[in-house]
């Protein structure tokens, strides 16, 4: 996160909030207070999405895990709703309606691809996945130390298989999301 933490991009903020949502939502933090953890996880996930919309993928993954484990989702959804509460107000003031997003108002000349699919998101493409992973500007090429994440995932899986599956699902969703853009 260090390279982005030193810039004015929101990546570091949304990533930190996403990690917090993961830690709270999967029971790593606040084990003795599950309802508070669920509310805080929803709040962190909502704030992460407020900063960058695609981080909703983390929040949705945690929600699915909570549903599959038959855990209460009410505090989680409440925390998320409160955190996302300012978004429709901002959208109404900035773009004329609560449901309009800033992505709909980008420059056609600078971002031609945004007209395809849903704000540029279509379906995953193998060539795009290759480009974002091992291509000249890909994750592995530019930051080979990220491969250590696989070691970390394996180590996590030895002690907490479910958490490792959730983490792997989040990584896979973001790779598919980016390969769809």
Structural class by secondary-structure content? mainly alpha
Separation of termini? 22 Å
Series of H and E elements: HHHHHHHHHH
State which percent range the strand residues make up.
Answer: under 5%
Please tell me the overall pLDDT: 88
Report the radius of gyration as a whole number of Å: 17 Å
Biggest sheet descriptor: none
What percent of the residues sit in helical stretches (DSSP H or I)?
Answer: 55-70%
Can you offer a commentary on this structure?
The chain is mostly helical and 181 residues long. It folds into 2 domains: 1-105, no CATH class; 112-181, no CATH class. The protein has helices at residues 2-5, 11-25, 34-51, 56-68, 74-84, 86-95, 126-133, 139-142, 148-159, 161-179. Helix 9 runs antiparallel to helix 10.
Write the layout of secondary structure elements.
Elements (H helix, E strand, L loop, with lengths): L1 H4 L5 H15 L8 H18 L4 H13 L5 H11 L1 H10 L30 H8 L5 H4 L5 H12 L1 H19 L2
Helix pairs in contact: 2-3, 2-4, 3-5, 4-10, 7-10, 9-10
How would you sum up this structure in a few lines?
By secondary structure, the chain is mainly alpha-helical. The protein has helices spanning 2-5, 11-25, 34-51, 56-68, 74-84, 86-95, 126-133, 139-142, 148-159, 161-179.
